[in-house]
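>> Question from a student workshop board

For tomorrow's exercise we were told to take the sequence and the ligand below, predict the bound structure, and bring the output to class. My setup keeps failing. Could a helper post the expected result so I can at least see what it should look like? The ligand is pyridoxal-5'-phosphate.
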Amino acid sequence: MMVDRIIFEDSQSGRSNSHQWPKQKADCDLPPSFLRTTPPSLPEVSELEVVRHYTLLSQKNYSVDTQFYPLGSCTMKYNPRACNTLAMLPGFLSRHPLEPIETGQGVLASLYELQEMLAQVSGMAAVSLSPMAGAQGEFAGVAMIKAYHQHNGDVERVEMLVPDAAHGTNPATATLCGFRVREIDTDKNGDLDLASLKAAVGPQTAGLMLTNPSTLGVFERQIEKVVAIVHAAGGLLYYDGANLNAITGRTRPGDMGFDAIHINVHKTFATPHGGGGPGAGPVGVSERLKPFLPTPIVACDRSRQNKKYHWLYVNDCPKSIGQLSAFMGNIGVLLRAYVYLRMLGGPGMRRVADYATLNANYLLARLSAAGFSVAFPNRMASHEFILTLKPEADNYNVTALDFAKRLLDYGFYAPTIYFPMLVPECMLIEPTETESKGELDRFVDAMVAIRNEAIHNPRMVKDAPHNIPLAGVGVGRLDETQAARKPDLIWNKE
Amino acid sequence: MMVDRIIFEDSQSGRSNSHQWPKQKADCDLPPSFLRTTPPSLPEVSELEVVRHYTLLSQKNYSVDTQFYPLGSCTMKYNPRACNTLAMLPGFLSRHPLEPIETGQGVLASLYELQEMLAQVSGMAAVSLSPMAGAQGEFAGVAMIKAYHQHNGDVERVEMLVPDAAHGTNPATATLCGFRVREIDTDKNGDLDLASLKAAVGPQTAGLMLTNPSTLGVFERQIEKVVAIVHAAGGLLYYDGANLNAITGRTRPGDMGFDAIHINVHKTFATPHGGGGPGAGPVGVSERLKPFLPTPIVACDRSRQNKKYHWLYVNDCPKSIGQLSAFMGNIGVLLRAYVYLRMLGGPGMRRVADYATLNANYLLARLSAAGFSVAFPNRMASHEFILTLKPEADNYNVTALDFAKRLLDYGFYAPTIYFPMLVPECMLIEPTETESKGELDRFVDAMVAIRNEAIHNPRMVKDAPHNIPLAGVGVGRLDETQAARKPDLIWNKE
Amino acid sequence: MPFIPHTTQDVEAMLATIGVSALDDLFCEIPANLRCDPPKLLPALNEMEITRLMAQRSAQDGGMLGFLGAGAYDHHIPAAVWEITTRGEYYSAYTPYQAEASQGTLQVIYEFQSMIAGLTAMEVSNASLYDGASGAAEAVLMAVRCSRKKTACIAIPATVNPRTIATIRTLISQQGIELLEIACTAQNGRIDPATLAQYNAKDILALLIPQPNYFGLLEDVDLLTDWAHAQGALVVGIVNPLALGILKPPGEWGSQGADIACGEGQPLGIPLSSGGPYFGFFACKKQWLRQLPGRIVGRTQDREGKRGFVLTMQAREQHIRRSKATSNICTNQGLMTVAATIYMAIMGPTGLANVAYACHDNSRKLLEQLTAIPGVERLHSGHYFHEFVVKLDRDVAKVLEELLAVGIVGGLALADNCMLVCVTETKTQADLDSYKAALADIMLRSDS
Amino acid sequence: MPFIPHTTQDVEAMLATIGVSALDDLFCEIPANLRCDPPKLLPALNEMEITRLMAQRSAQDGGMLGFLGAGAYDHHIPAAVWEITTRGEYYSAYTPYQAEASQGTLQVIYEFQSMIAGLTAMEVSNASLYDGASGAAEAVLMAVRCSRKKTACIAIPATVNPRTIATIRTLISQQGIELLEIACTAQNGRIDPATLAQYNAKDILALLIPQPNYFGLLEDVDLLTDWAHAQGALVVGIVNPLALGILKPPGEWGSQGADIACGEGQPLGIPLSSGGPYFGFFACKKQWLRQLPGRIVGRTQDREGKRGFVLTMQAREQHIRRSKATSNICTNQGLMTVAATIYMAIMGPTGLANVAYACHDNSRKLLEQLTAIPGVERLHSGHYFHEFVVKLDRDVAKVLEELLAVGIVGGLALADNCMLVCVTETKTQADLDSYKAALADIMLRSDS
Ligand SMILES: Cc1ncc(COP(=O)(O)O)c(C=O)c1O
Ligand SMILES: Cc1ncc(COP(=O)(O)O)c(C=O)c1O
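>> Workshop helper replied:
Here is what the output should look like for this input. Compare the format with yours to find the bug.
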């Protein structure tokens, strides 16, 4: 009876929100050759229709603000509302990026302090905030490693080592930086296979990209050996900071011996994911990579009475790998991270790791006790852990995907599935520190209930979702194959 | 499987959002006799739990921002988002009501201009913004009428005339002001019964409360005669401005001869209803009632170079009926109305009435053509109109209430039902000017579909709602009788 | 067109369906001589223009270091409160008449009622009244309805906020209810129990008790409550809800507790906003339930037994009972109660107590600092919450003006060169120091 | 605890379930010598304190009358845009991997893609890249993937924003792609078609065409496009999306249209924010679909045939294709595209055109006013959109400093005492007059 419309379907020629338009009737002196002959295909809808449409659409999302969202590797924690409110204060929003520093001392002070605090938390010598997400942070880090080798005339180092369990951005970044990717195996306990590593390193090794705890949800216990092996071979170590939420205030990548690190502030530092972005991916480096940091960087002139903050650009950092965006990255996101970090302080940073780890291990213990198979049963979980639903798949023909879809019916977003691909029918579960024991218990109940369904009423699970408790017209399981085979990517009047 | 919890059910002793608390550990010197011995029963929940709970709850409302809301008499039009954003600017929010006028020239200027503009739109000599809703505006108006008579020594005027179709606040207000209420009949075309009026007026008549167009959705055609009769009897005329949306820029209560009027800014001037309030109910008066206006009122000192705005308090207006609240009413709401009015201007005011009336008459014509019975078929609708579903009730045993509940399933809020009580099985429908023809057409389709259901599958209608497209656990028709018989008004641990 | 979605074609099609030829025709029933031109208002601005204008006006306003209280209080409001409260689904909904499509608002109000009941230790609460002052007037009218007494004599202490008294006067004066002032000396600042006996003869119907009172002082609520009840009078507590984080709640005053508790809800997460919108909260003993003014939400169930919420006890209200309703109120302050509910949920019992303690603590510190200045002394003795009165040895209005010149709103001028000063948890030690320094400077510079 | 819901009892019960006795035990696998103390950071602030700090810092910043452009533009943003965009359901959701519970974000992106396609007259679009500059770098990399040429020579006019060029350099330099600068004289400010022939020999793989270019001037896009296609090169249009309200869209340039269109999305409803977050939009001809970087949303259906949306063509992306992906991008600028979609929906085709006209109109007015001042003259001739370059007869840095002192950010200093000035629809005639008056005053006072 009801249809959720596409905004273009509400469009009607000649409708106008003229109160949003400039008043002037401008005559245009531009020759027709520069001008478009037909107006762009945009919808013509009233402001109310816009508000209603996009408000209703928002209600068709699960989100941290509305549901438990245990998406492994993504650290879907609470995004404090104050961070949003304060980052959107008018003085911050209205300033043009090229304005003189005199009109930006407020924002610059905040960014400078953020740089310093992130260096502290990660144990690195210096930080640049400019990368706009984790993957761009990776790019910056790997490009710095390349620049370092080149600077040393070490041009034969053309290979980047990446564990097989690594996040896809790691190998993709290595390629983007012109490296050949070489995969390193994982052993059966989830640690890096040292034999495989030793076999791989050599004079061609530029470095190793690693996240620790790894994407398998366990801490790399031999990290010191790993670092020693790569360093001995002349390679550098890159730390993928996506999993920092597991260790803040407990251990530091810098102390482990990493040379470069990116930090996903949209994970550990509670900035929102926004349905896909924006995030920010500050990079931290050890002393030897400092000259190569991407610009701009905030500096503080302490010589004066009052501190004065200013930018360092490429001219100030001649060895820099350069700038990564037109201006200075995702400042509004960084401001949110700054507010968050200021509210937590040092002890708060440790609490993050402590309670994230507590929640993960508790959930693991309960699910394991409930009979689910744990990928690395002999390991302490980090901030996340992996179940394998292979027994369920084998016995009841109900897959991790089916479980995931059915969880949606129960009002939970699904954990990450089929990543890392190493573990069959895997579910990577990350509760984060901001969820309560009560919520975790309800999740366990749902998992148990679904397994019971899988046994007694498998269609219920295989055909899920049935009735996601969201507003509007609910959809059942969507056909992704058709979407890819016959791409319908933009609206066309039918 | 899912339950929507009450916030207290998530509470757990010892949980804290300490980042929201002052840091100081205060020792308290107050003697125990002044202090509470047990902490107040408030929930102990995390900030995320609060955000999630109240975000989810919000999704369980229909609202103008999400649904067509044709609630008669309530003028559920689009509340422009700019009004909210601008009324919540920090300078406005942070100012204490008792601060000197020097720190409030911005807000005072806006309120002064609003007073002037509302006087213009209504055709009254002066306006006070202080009443906090329509009913309090009524109180102010009726109290002024009483004060006027008393001032004239006319103390025998103890009766207030109110049409039988009037909104409940009218007779309730008359009582609150110490008047006896006398009802006046409506004739079969929806006009006031002049015979009944003539029979009722006399030396005991303090005045008549009227809304025009009336709550029956039609314009009182004999308004001039009505005014003349009451005035001739020595009574004054009060205009209930709840229906002003029908006539702005087309005709003015002041020109009709009314002595006092309230204006529901939360109707005609697009301020939000907030799920029940706050609104604001400015009162306008003719010259003779001016001295009695409630305080405070904004005045402008034009003698200086720059205009300077200040408050007039009771001391400045010795005949005033006094103040209606501790400070100055719902200023934040009035600021929203100001922004709205400034965006419309005079021509925009007329457009409001024009398109509100167009929408109502169009919807009336379509529903009538579709076979629904119109209460006053020979009349032009104002901004609203009445259907009677008596034929449907008689023929299919499906009531206006059933239709209303079933409309919810179709994604529409229901029109006002059973008011005015004059018309059996009535539905008072007010589309407002901000809805599109497409939305009205869809509403007609739904009404027709429901009547078909009433014919072929009456249970579907009588048992509605079945599946309101809202988030979370949907409820079916709620038992209001039980609620009133065994009141459960506050949460108790079970 | 601003906020109107109609295209020219729409208008033509719609007029044709109606069977008229022009918009003008829709107004044919309005007598010709009453028709008017569009009003001449200030010129219409587009959103860009009004945004700029309001930004300028807002920048003009506020921004002071403020020590004003007197019924409205500056508290920290968590960002989450208004980010959620202004969501369209709360903001743009109506009074929840269609319960099934309004469970959001209804459940929030149910929770609000529960929290207010918890805070005041009363049995039932309504869904809000306009503000604290008009709510107190409703309490008076309700007391009259509840009492079996024939008189209509309401005792109101001189320590009640004068703005509340003025509002009560306006709202009840139409009905011949008498307000009997319970005097107190300026020196004392609180009701002196010793003076109560003189009112025994007055056949008082209800006694209003402010806690804290207008001067910030704590009344002896137990004694006053018991005295009133001994007279057969009802007790109406007018309380600061934030102070109830630590103060004895009205439901526990004396041996039986107050009958009605009401007050200004603004301290619970509502911005100062030059005076509104705020909200009045209102609670009472269950026995008076049917005399409550305003809306009430109750819990019930649907046919399948699922829990749900509805407006209830509507037979008290104007839309049903009309001229016999308990009040004429219709629109209340709904959205403010959403904010207050979120505020209370975030703060919790301990948070609220901490805020109250901090307010009290800060005001003690400031009082000590200010009275260390020659020419400044405290007027009263006795315990206070977060407001106090100091007396200056010179023109208080002039001193306040000079403070304003350095960005400080020092307090509210009272008679006899006194001023009422309030300190909340928002003030830091540095703020207190600035105030002290500025005042000391002024007192030093100017003649007494 | 801040943002942690655990009570002491919870912790005990949970540790017991896990089978350890203390939180410390959870970190037993970390080698002892690597464990650290909590970092020493600035002291923790509560929300009240950080709110005050950030309010102060915000009050310090911005607030100028600004005439800066150069890649970021000050436009009116309807209030509805950010009130809706920051709703928790958009704000706090992840990339919509579970499509059925993410239809909100997915449908918005589908509509976004449709609008970008409409604006650029291209056939497909993605779900955003980080910003305009990094998006241009992705366009270069994509062109290399699309082209059958063996060379990797990309022609980039000197009229492209130098910040874009620098970013492209950073991002592509790792792969040995050569950037060939198409020169232009300072005088000219646009690519001179007459000079193109000299590049015929270079076997160019792609030509980047900025419209408007860095100096605000309009390039002869038809001729450039046709020339590039004649060389067998691909054409990448780098366009201002707001200007496309009136300017010829890349899809219609020359006889075949550009192959890829990209640009900075900020003008579409994104606040200036000192530089970010913004977003890069990206569109291309359908034939290159499989080489697109970034996420793409497609329409599909569920088993009952109900319409729905999913992430699609994921075989291009890093999480599937890993080292062979079209890009390493994962997190993009999703929320910014929500804002841009709402912005475009509110403005509509006519609104966007009106904004573009007003920008152009205002810049013409200001240029006229400024060049009436002795010592100020326009550097270029030729048509421009909403930016232009003026040359001063004295030190431009000093002049800009003096303008700043009166609250005006006059423009961006370029070489040779030139400055790049931008005017958008946000400036009133009074603003233009203030600028003119201030500049005239400075030029009069100071020596050339
Ligand atoms: C382990 C890991 N590494 C890298 C990334 C990439 O970060 P981003 O999405 O911010 O580019 C992610 C994000 O999903 C991740 O989980
Ligand atoms: C006709 C009429 N009169 C008066 C009122 C009372 O106005 P308020 O709710 O603002 O007190 C209303 C509101 O519902 C109404 O519709």
